[in-house]
């Protein structure tokens, strides 16, 4: 969705439709209406603030655990870990697979000046909206960062990854309902 001043509306409409956009899809229109309604509620601002608090806590603990974040930290919901700072031979793809084994879902991602191919990468991208939605707060972000560090440090040990999976599931069970 593009929001603009009225003076630009016709030019944007001609640039987008019909060339870049097809016909209207009612399910997409309904989803946007729901999203705008949620975003207009006061609780949404509180939720967004918690997402950023969680990201800052996660980033800080990852740094404490010896990881280099490409941006040195975060001011939003995302962060990008440079794996080469700690594990020179571990690719983003491998790290994401190991973390998935431990019940932690992240995305492989290229880093600036990455020497690896985009299918392999040297980085991991993490975001906090989903775990914030599940009710986690800053204290749990410390645990998540520790789970990530422990998993990658013990990536060849399936038993450790199973233990971390159980710990992370238990952490989710102890979080109060929203």
From TrEMBL:
Gene3D superfamilies: Aspartate Aminotransferase, domain 1 (3.90.1150.10), Type I PLP-dependent aspartate aminotransferase-like (Major domain) (3.40.640.10). The keyword Iron does not apply. Its cofactor is pyridoxal 5'-phosphate. Coiled coil: none annotated. Residues 6-148 form the Serine hydroxymethyltransferase-like domain. Pfam families: SHMT. GO terms for molecular function: glycine hydroxymethyltransferase activity; pyridoxal phosphate binding. Keywords: Pyridoxal phosphate. Transmembrane segments: none annotated. This is Serine hydroxymethyltransferase. It comes from Geodia barretti (Barrett's horny sponge). The lineage of its organism: Eukaryota, Metazoa, Porifera, Demospongiae, Heteroscleromorpha.
């Amino acid at each position: 969705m593009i929001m603009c001043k009225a003076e630009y509306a016709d030019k944007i409409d001609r640039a987008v439709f019909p060339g870049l956009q097809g016909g209207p899809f009612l399910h997409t229109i309904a989803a946007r209406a729901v999203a705008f309604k949620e975003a207009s509620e006061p609780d949404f601002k509180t939720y967004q603030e918690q997402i950023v608090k969680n990201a800052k806590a996660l980033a800080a603990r990852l740094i404490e655990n010896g990881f280099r974040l490409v941006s040195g930290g975060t001011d939003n919901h995302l962060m990008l870990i440079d794996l080469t700072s700690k594990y020179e031979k571990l690719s983003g793809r491998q790290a994401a697979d190991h973390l998935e084994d431990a019940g932690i879902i992240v995305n492989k991602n290229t880093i600036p000046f990455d020497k690896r191919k985009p299918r392999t990468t040297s980085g991991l991208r993490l975001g906090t909206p989903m775990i914030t939605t599940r009710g986690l707060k800053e204290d749990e972000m410390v645990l998540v960062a520790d789970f990530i560090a422990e998993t990658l440090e013990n990536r060849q040990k399936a038993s450790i990854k199973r233990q971390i999976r159980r710990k992370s599931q238990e952490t989710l069970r102890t979080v109060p309902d929203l």
